[in-house]
Write the structure tokens for this entry.
Amino acid sequence: MLYTLFEYLQESAFPGARLMTYLTFRSGVAFVLAMLIAIFVGRRIIDRLQLMQVGEIVRNLDLEGQTKKTGTPTMGGVIIIIGIVIPCVLVGNLGNVYMLLMLFATLWLGTLGFLDDYKKLTKHNKDGIKGKYKIVGQLGIACILAGTMYFNPDMVIVQNSEVISEETSRVEEVIYDTEVTHSPETTLPFVKNNNFNYSWITSWMGAGEIGGWIVFLVIVMFLVTATSNGANLNDGLDGMTSGLSAVAGVALAIMAYLGGNVIYSGYLNIMYIPDSGELVVYMAAFIGALVGFLWYNAYPAQVFMGDTGSLTLGGIIAVYAILIHKELLLPILCALFYIEDLSVALQVLYFKKTGGKRIFKMAPLHHHFQKPGNAGIDALIQRPLAAIPEAKIVTRFWIIGIILAVVTFVTLKIR
């Protein structure tokens, strides 16, 4: 809205109207607006949730401080969603397909999570909507995303190639093709020539480009589902998922800015993605909303995000990474989310196979650290023997998340 208005004012030579043309300025405004909305509007939403008695239903798992969380307002993910959408509508370019896709994905996943929370609260249980319906919803946005990237002619990349010096055998410069490319390509970490086309996987079948897009669709469906569910499982301690998502957001915002700028992408020898720089504005709002939400969600939490927030956050991170063609970096950046997924899967399989034995003291993994070792739980892994306080677990996960974000970022240069 404001972006369009300032475009008109710029044509009229209105003083200061050019500010809105600067990506960094609009990103800064989006961050501040999102944070303030989350803090001030969030307070009203929390009060309203308390009046409506929308409180968390907590199972007694014999964890430190767990019973104190009963009744804490949940569905706070609404605060995050509002904090993202309003600044993007105000200062974002709504004519940009990348921005529109991110807003659509946010509302889609937010609605899925809201329905899950709503059923939990109205039915007074922790089950919510059936798992298969969640998966269908996640696969649905994945298919829409992949389909849009396939059919939309504006979602293109520009191929990069190196000019090697004959004397020194070193890269003298990186040049870009004069024509844009519409193909299923991505970035591989720690590889010298790191542009990878999914069509190469199916080339032996003679499937051509369409085969590559099919492989791309399968990968997109897996990553959106795994990341969204991983964030959902990770959301068990005060502030943990909010903090980890904000850290991942910073790394993705930097990569989007670099990939959307022909000069910086040339320096790093990565594919240039025209018009994708607008995603920086979205991610600035995303980070700002999470920082504002942490004002209330940090230990001891005054509000929980619920599935409205956690399913949305993981899905947003996956969709964003896919749009900037960095989806294969997600196993590094979101390793903690995937480890949470894996810990639950392994625990369930081992429990069924052994007739009641466990690998971890408790799953998802973060709860394993809250349980003391050798306390009557038949688990393969008993360490740490002493239970770790919740706030310390969260802080350590944040530190690991920061390390993973740094490693993800440096993969753009280290080959």
Observations:
- Residues 2-410 form one domain.
- The longest strand covers residues 171-176.
